[in-house]
Backbone:
């Protein structure tokens, strides 16, 4: 079985499923591009649709250990949301490696599901106006999968998906081929059974015709078989008697010839 490759866009898709009732976005900046030269960017952000209890849940996605270890900017995401969590493949990050206020969610690549390892602590923060303006002006519609961060990620996903499709087609081809072999064997067995049946039927028809010719008639059941057996045995005995008679006749003829020859000599 090929190794399951974990991609960031698949984790974003799983988060989208979790936040299906919220306003969900990916690659969310902390303000319009014109406002500052360098931006912080959340991998994903979910906004709960509630006026009385607003909640912005921010996510940082990691699919490699090295990417997590060299990230020194994620602390800047905390003022951008009420709850902040890391999302990664199961076991990639340990809870003790993160501050207690930061959540941790594990992604199962085989099932495509999420498991909350540690829930993020709610923090009462004032969301930056620039980020809210950016969301309103640029991200008014919810994102739809695929959630790619850049062109490179899109190309990688295409290559991996193409490989997965090839593996799937090869596996399916092998299964179809194996099934065709099984069906061919079953068909061959059936053909042999019908051939044996035809041979048996032919012998039966000949036997039935022979029985009719020697005077054995009936329903061709057990009684008919018994009657035919008796007739055949009787026929065999008669042939033996006939053979013995013929032998006696030949001996008598030879004896007469011998007697005649002696009479001539006298």
Residues:
């Amino acid at each position: 079985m090929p190794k399951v490759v974990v991609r960031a866009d698949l984790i974003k898709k799983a988060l989208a499923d979790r936040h299906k009732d919220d306003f969900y976005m990916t690659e969310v900046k902390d303000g319009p591009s014109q406002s500052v030269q360098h931006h912080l960017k959340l991998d994903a952000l979910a906004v709960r649709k509630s006026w009385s209890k607003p909640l912005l849940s921010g996510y940082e996605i990691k699919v490699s250990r090295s990417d997590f270890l060299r990230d020194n900017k994620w602390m800047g995401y905390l003022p951008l949301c009420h709850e902040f969590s890391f999302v990664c493949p199961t076991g990639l990050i340990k809870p003790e490696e993160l501050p207690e206020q930061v959540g941790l969610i594990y992604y199962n690549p085989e099932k495509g599901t999420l498991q909350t390892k540690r829930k993020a602590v709610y923090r009462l923060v004032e969301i930056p106006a620039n980020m809210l303006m950016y969301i309103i002006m640029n991200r008014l519609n919810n994102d739809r999968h695929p959630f790619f961060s850049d062109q490179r990620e899109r190309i990688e996903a295409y290559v991996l998906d193409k490989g997965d499709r090839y593996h799937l087609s090869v596996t399916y081809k092998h299964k179809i081929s194996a099934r065709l072999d099984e069906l061919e064997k079953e068909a061959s067995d059936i053909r042999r059974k019908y051939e044996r049946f035809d041979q048996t039927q032919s012998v039966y028809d000949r036997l039935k015709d022979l029985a009719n010719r020697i005077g054995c008639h009936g329903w061709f059941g057990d009684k008919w078989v018994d009657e035919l057996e008796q007739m055949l045995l009787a026929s065999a005995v008669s042939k033996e008697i006939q053979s013995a008679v013929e032998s006696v006749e030949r001996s008598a003829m030879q004896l007469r010839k011998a007697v005649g020859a002696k009479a001539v000599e006298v």
The chain has a mean pLDDT of 79.
